[in-house]
Amino acid sequence: MRAAAAGAALALTILVGVAMARDPERLQAERIFAAIDRLIEHRAAEPAEFERLVHTRIAPVPELSTPFFTVYRGDFEPPSPFRQIEIRQPLVPPRERGVIILEIGEGVCVGPQAVRARYGPEPALAPPSARQPAGSPIYYVYDRPWGKLSLALSRGTPECLERAVIDWHG
């Protein structure tokens, strides 16, 4: 009985591994979604914790920082599916707010169907305004108890996830 269970588990592992290997786009989407979810979960972390979460160095950017918040940035290296992370941490109490911007790398395409399947089928849509440059992305906005998750999708063919913005307030 135990051998049969072990054999079934091994067969399932092989089947899942083969299926994922055949669908690298889905595997890449899951990796991106998992990173977004981790950042949401640890949104109030200190910069050193973010470095451990995203496996890249994050440094303050004084020229973008203000008396109200500090901006931190980190650049990713290939083969990461990410290009850059930006964290805006408030300096004045209450420090229960912040923004995290995760830029997706070029050559990576997570489509709108995958986004809606993961985060919800009916996001609020935030199209670019007339003042924004041509080709600006459309945002899928998801209101959550902790704030907003805004996911920028390129316009054109194919539509691809370009950035995730985690705007939190507690």
How is the secondary structure organized here?
Elements lengths: L1 H21 L1 H18 L5 H8 L4 E2 L8 E7 L6 E9 L7 E7 L7 H8 L4 E3 L11 E7 L2 E7 L7 E8 L2
Antiparallel strand pairs: 1-2, 2-3, 3-4, 4-8, 5-6, 6-7, 7-8
Number of strands: 8
Ranges where pLDDT stays below 50 over 5 or more residues in a row are 1-21
Quickly count the domains: 1
Q: Rough shape?
A: globular
Widest sheet: strand order?
Answer: 1-2-3-4-8-7-6-5
The overall pLDDT average reads 87
Main beta sheet: strand number and arrangement? Answer: 8 strands, antiparallel
Percentage of residues assigned to helices: 25-40%
What portion of the residues fall into strands of 2 or more residues? 25-35%
Distance between the termini: 50 Å
Q: Topology as H/E string?
A: HHHEEEEHEEEE
Class per helix and strand makeup: alpha+beta
- SS field, number of helical segments: 4
Spatial extent as radius of gyration: 19 Å
Plain-language structure description:
- Strand 6 and strand 7 form a beta hairpin.
- 32% of the residues lie in helices and 29% in strands.
- The chain has 170 residues and is α+β, with helices and mostly antiparallel strands.
- The chain has an 8-stranded antiparallel β-sheet, with helices on one face.
- The protein is globular, with a radius of gyration of 19 Å.
- The protein has one domain.
- The protein has 4 helices and 8 strands.
